[in-house]
Amino acid sequence: DTEVTQTPKHLVMGMTNKKSLKCEQHMGHRAMYWYKQKAKKPPELMFVYSYEKLSINESVPSRFSPECPNSSLLNLHLHALQPEDSALYLCASSRLTSGGITYEQYFGPGTRLTVT
Amino acid sequence: AQSVTQLDSQVPVFEEAPVELRCNYSSSVSVYLFWYVQYPNQGLQLLLKYLSGSTLVKGINGFEAEFNKSQTSFHLRKPSVHISDTAEYFCAVSFTGGGNKLTFGTGTQLKVEL
Q1: CB neighbourhood size of B60 (10 A)
Q2: What is the number of other CB atoms lying within 10 angstroms of the CB of residue A58?
Q3: So what's the pLDDT on residue A106?
Q4: Is B101 helix (H, G, I), strand (E, B) or coil?
Q5: Interacting residues of A29 by C-beta distance below 8 A, sequence separation 6+
Q6: According to the model, what pLDDT value does residue B31 have?
Q7: N or C of chain A: less Cβ packing under 10 Å?
Q8: How many CB atoms lie within 10 A of CB A55?
Q9: Alpha-carbon distance B45 to nearest alpha carbon in chain A (angstroms)
Q10: Do residues A68 and A48 touch, judged by C-beta distance below 8 A?
Q11: Are A44 and A33 in contact (CB under 8 A)?
């Protein structure tokens, strides 16, 4: 099973709202990722968790707050977003290596976020 | 600098014709190579991967790719496309020393026509 699940599928929120995106995988992967994808563009990496610890933050604004409660779950907490944050948010997971190179990543279906 | 290039932003092709989507990378270190497909309003699905071994890699949906180290290429091919292959295709590379990061190409829109 190579499934990564994400909820919700769609989310509309105002600029003053607080919401959370959820991601789950049961492949035993110890690396989990959040990406942001705009239309007609490749995914842009936001955060990486390795062994449930934040290992990479690609200078993402603090209105995005990631959380990894356990090895299967990844959350992205959203607060005071801007209209330009509207995008498809993708979660992914992968095995970890010790050689500083990543194996293939498995992606979820994404959450389509619209900020009004 | 390490980079990935997909020169063709769009590739139109007739159904049952062969297709090749091109991917080149620039690197002085070892790499792992991947192709992903993205259908409208969906996530990315792994088509195939090259980690080591045989340079000809077979993937899902009848796709294959060949790793050419001297040309630093990893082109994706399918001998006969179907309407359902219409999608965005991303080449992605993992570089040694790059940590848990994938570097994506800009994507190629494959449009299969009747």
Answers
A1: 10
A2: 13
A3: 97
A4: coil
A5: A71, A93, A94, A95, A96, A106
A6: 92
A7: N
A8: 13
A9: 7
A10: no
A11: no
Please write the tens of the pLDDT for every residue from A18-51.
Answer: 999 999 999 999 999 999 999 999 999 999 999 9
Burial A10-25 (b: 16+ CB within 10 A, else e): ebebeeeeebebbbbb
Å between B31 CA and nearest CA of chain A? 8
CA distances from A96 to A32, A49, A59, A102, B7 (A): 10, 10, 22, 7, 31
* pLDDT band at residue A1 under the 50/70/90 scheme: low
Nearest CB to A101: which of B44, B94, B107? B94
The alpha carbons of chain A give a radius of gyration, in whole angstroms, of 14
* Closest residue, chain B, to A44 (C-alpha): B104
Separation of alpha carbons B107 and B88, rounded Å: 6
Distance of CA A104 to the CA centre of its chain: 16
Whose CA is closest to B27, among B88, B103, B109? B103
Half-sphere exposure of A35 (CA within 13 A, CB side): 26
How far does CA A39 lie from the centroid of its chain? Answer: 17
Q: pLDDT confidence of B100, banded at 50, 70, 90? A: confident
Over residues B58-70, mean pLDDT: 96
